[in-house]
Amino acid sequence: MLKTLLIKNFALIDELEVSFDKGLNILTGETGSGKSIIIGAIDIALGARASKDVIKSGKDKAYIEICLDAGNVLTAKALKSLEIDHVEGEDLIISREITSSSAKSRINGILVNQTQMQEVRKTLLDIHTQHENYNFINPALHIELLDSYGQGEYGELLREYRECYNTFVTTQKQLDVAQKSAGENAQKVDFLTFQIDEIKAANITNINEYEELTEERNVLINAEELKALTFSGYSALYGEEQSITDVLGRIEKELIRAAEYDPKLSELANTVASSVISLKEAAKELRNYSESLEINPQRLEEVETRINLLDKLKRKYGPTLSDILNNLEKFEAELSSVNFSEEKLAQLEAEAKENREKSDKLALELSAARKTLAEKLSSLIQDELVKLEMPKTRFSIDIQTGQELGPDGYDRVEFLISTNTGEPLKPLAKIASGGEISRVMLAIKGIFARTDMVNTVIFDEIDTGISGKASQAVAEAFAELAKTHQIICITHQPIIAAMADNHILIQKAHDEQATRIIVETLDSQGRLKAIASLASGLHDDVDALNFAGKLLSQADARKKEACF
pLDDT tens-digit profile of 13-66? Predict the structure, then answer.
């Protein structure tokens, strides 16, 4: 149940808080007073698309917050799947903040995306407008409406069918690919195999091998010169008379002797000594390097051959060794997807046939269950339409069982109606009157609401185009639905307004600076004036007030009589 709505800097609203109650909540006010802004704010809070245009002029952001009593097992399940903590019995807080660049939704303070919000929304609240009634006249949605009502009768059968059908579709796609590959891709298989074998034959295990081989080739080509140069360096440093290390050794001794006269020279003597040690180490490494070098034409030839092979592969599959190995993985994956064996084809054919036969069987069972429910539901809706002052109306849920299997089975479902005696049944879309569409929608919703888990239903001016006895019938239908659901309804009909359990008046206030929206929950005197204004346009006219009083008394009597 929706308890409160808080709005800040939204459309014409600076800040506004509206409280709702159990039962039938009626919203009234002059045309353009902002009633639909209230409903729009609820819709946006629950994930409807929102543009920056809804932000009040001169403000940086809009904020909407709704507080709900979330006593619903489906809501609890949805929240758990999103890992949102919610203690049973505590209020659920949903908010939406809209800026010029973003719109952020939160549930109990946890940021959620719009898909997640929609999953929670559908367990909490329905919103119906004159425009949204077309959901009920769109034949594409009729099978979904019927199946939602039939969850108790054949919900498990429907879930089993869809699981089996999805498995069949997946297997059939695999089979189609396999058959196409087997029939058309022999040449492609040969080429992929050649590419894979060519790369594998190179046995590339090190992605840095090319650079390492290039360095080794440079050494092998210049081995003689490198050997001579490094040995020469060794000799100059250590291996000949008057080598650099010998000279530095003498200098070290001389500095040590000089330090006897000037201790400051000791540090220089130490520096020279360290240099001698380092140069001896360098000389040793140069000697080892020179002695280790081999002039090896055979190894040079091997390196050249390997570099040429890698160059060839780089041109075809590179430009790097890493790219070559990535292409190998791609070729193997592609080969795996097209190189189906005869055994695999036979296996897929058997699986597809088995799943198709099982899907056929379940689809026929589903069709029979739908037709049984459709007959029952048609009768219930027709009875509701009689209560809504459409006594000559015939309503039928037509199910045509076709030959093509689909996600919903073999059936095509369409709601048909005849509103006048002697007229044949026609699609709902053929109904000319908006008032008739509204009442048909209300009848359908009244039946469906008995089985769904949504606690709150909002109706935005769906009573347009009706009056008199039809208005009284719609008012009583709302009151009946309000026994099990919280109903929030915008209306211009005084008869419907008189049936309210909680009457909220919405008005615009103007001053030189701005236009504001004011919301007031009415007491008995306020209700009298508001209904008088709906009936005549005058809230203080004596006749209008007397009429409003009669409507309120009549509504109270009908509630007591029917136990609304």
Answer: 888 999 999 999 999 988 878 888 898 899 999 988 888 889 988 899 999 999
What pTM was computed for the model? 0.62
Amino acid at 101: S
End-to-end CA distance of the chain: 18
Q: Give the whole-number percent of the chain exceeding pLDDT 70.
A: 94
Q: Give the DSSP per-residue string, 71-96.
A: --HHHHHHHHHTT----TTSEEEEEE
In a domain, 239, yes or no: yes
The amino acid present at 35, given as its one-letter code, is K
3-class state of residue 324 by DSSP: helix
To which residue do tokens 């869809």 refer? 162
Q: Structurally, how many domains does the chain consist of?
A: 1
Percent of the chain, pLDDT > 90? 39
C-alpha 141: how far from its chain's center? Answer: 21
CA angle 23, 27, 33 (to 5 degrees): 165
Q: Contact at 8 Å (CB) between 144 and 150?
A: no
Alpha-carbon distance 437 to 409, whole Å?
A: 29
Closest CA to 435 of 407, 411, 462: 462
Residue 432, pLDDT above cutoff 60: no
Q: Which of 152-161, 251-260, 508-517 shows the lowest per-residue confidence on average (mean pLDDT)? A: 508-517
Residue of 454, 363, 355 lying closest to 154 (CA atoms): 363
- The answer to whether residue 251 sits within a structural domain is yes
Place of tokens 């149940």: 1
Q: Does 504 reside within a domain?
A: no
Residue 340 — φ and ψ, nearest 5°? -80, 140
Burial of 260 (0-12, 13-18, 19+ CB in 10 A): exposed
Question: Are residues 189 and 338 in contact, defined by beta-carbon separation less than 8 angstroms?
Answer: yes
Assigned domain for 298 exists: yes
